[in-house]
Amino acid sequence: RRAMLAVDAKTMGGTIARNNSLDAAALAGAGGAHIQTIQVIAADGRPVDMPAGHNHNLHPRPKHLSPEEERRAGMIFTTLFMLMILAQLLLVYWKKKNYRTYQQVTLVGLWLIPFLFSAELHFWKLLLCWALWTASSTYVMYKATRKPIPDRTPRLVYSFFFYAFKLCYSAGVFGYILIMADFFQISAIFGVQDQVAYLGVMLLFFGLYFGILSRDCSEMCTDRMAS
Question: How far is 44 from 62, CA to CA, in rounded Å?
Answer without folding.
Answer: 17
